[in-house]
Amino acid sequence: MAEVDASVSRDSGLGITSRLLQSREVGAILAVLVLFTLGSFIRADVFLSADNLVGIIRNTAITAIIGYGMTLLMVSGEFDLSVGSLMAVCAALVATMYGSGYPILFIVLLVLFFAAIYGLFQGLMITKLGLPSLIVTIGTLTLLRGANLVILGGQTATIPSDNFPRLLFYIGGVLDLGTDAFLVSRFPLQIVWTLLFLVLGYYILNKTAFGYRAMFTGGNKESANRTGIKTDHVKIINFMLVALLAAFAGMGQLAFTQAVSPSTGQGVELIVIASVVIGGTNLFGGEGSMPGTFLGALVFALTQNILVLAGLGVQLFQVFTGIFIIAAVLIEVLSRDLRLEYLTEEYLSPLKSLSTETESFFEYVRGDVQGIDEPLIFAAVGTVIWAVATLILMTVVDTILGWEFSFVIVSPGVSALGTVPLIAFLLTAGLLLLTAIFLHASVKALGTRRDFDTTLQGVIYSFAPAVLLFVPVLLIGWSFVTPLVLGSVVLIAAPILYLLYQSTRVLHEFSSRNALLAVGATIVLWLAVGVFTATQIGIVG
């Protein structure tokens, strides 16, 4: 009995923070909090206004509504790249048929029926013929884009305000509330549908037998089949659901903008899938979150809004979309075993041993068949730390002292949120890889019996002081004198060179002389790269 109590105590001791870090929505929650803070910092007067916040939620509508269906589909182990094109075709059908005089109720029912049949067709092709959903939905995406051009005749179709159908208004119109009695002057009805479908989606996924079957299908299809679950039927139904929601979202967008063009829906599929993944749905099926999908859609809506407020337009929106997708995948991989102890075990403990018992640490690395995974995690955590430190110090100093920061294309604000981590990754990865190549060429010439992975492990751990790279980066960005920047680089390089010497001597079982020769040759090669780079920059200048 005592053992059970102890076990329960340990589990409960994880606390709310640890459970939050292990939740599937952690990435989306953190992204929303960061973006909300950033928006408040850039233009609080506009960003925090009721109309702007309502507009942000409205901008989640298309992504979130389609995303709920995509969540169910991805939970069952499939995905659909054609949802953006289907959304556009359905909107085009409504606009052209209504312009031709057909009753709106008939049109809406016909379009929904068409979407359901379309989803059924895709589901049958994928489940019964065994075709991969990637290939099938790329094909149908292209087909539907062509169909949209044919339906619209290459022109934009509109629905005039004086002949706007009431049913379409209820699907995606905007209520004019005035400005006297309400904080919000206009209220888009798409918000109501977004929240309603969120509740329904959550109930279906988490509270119904169909939701459990979908998760079981995506988690282990063979086991699901053995238990009597008709996995093909589950997938077909989910293809139909996501198609119906795409059709509904298309009609809602038509009602909101009162127009549909040949370019409508392009790129929507990528943002939808990215939102679903950011929200915590497993890329390989079996797990998903409807609230997470809404939060993922909110991440993109916030990003677009902040870019506009920052005066950057939407030129960087695709850049951030790519960054968010990559970040979502990383979070997906790391969240499988994410604990508060993770930082300690994979970064702080090795860092402490490396600092206090350098030779013993590298002897442990040499004797432990750990592969390259743990060193890569060590490098990744260090990169994240120096990127975050750069962002924080850049913003704080800019706010307090007003120092203008400019490092390549980075400046305080929205652009720094995406470009600083990218620069940190590229700079660290480039330094590590070239150093490992130079050093391994040197140790091979001196007769090492170890492979490249051994050299790479030593280089990664030796670059532990590179976590301080934010110092010279900030000094350059604030236009400090060159000797001060070079001095900071030397202070960081000195312990790195010492660690490279120790790692080379221990891991490759070299004498002190050979270890010094290998590190010296690496320095010469780096100097050659530096001279060449400076020469090329001088030519351009």
From TrEMBL:
Single GO molecular function: transmembrane transporter activity
Membrane topology: Multi-pass membrane protein
Parts of the chain that traverse the membrane: 26-44, 56-74, 104-121, 133-154, 187-205, 236-256, 268-285, 292-310, 316-334, 376-397, 417-439, 459-478, 484-503, 515-539
UniProt keyword list: Cell membrane, Membrane, Transmembrane, Transmembrane helix
CDD domains assigned: TM_PBP1_transp_AraH_like
Cell membrane found in the keyword field: yes
Cellular location(s): Cell membrane
GO cellular component labels: plasma membrane
InterPro entries to which the protein is assigned, alphabetical: ABC_transp_permease, Yip1_dom
Yip1 domain: residues covered: 359-530
Descriptive protein name: ABC transporter permease
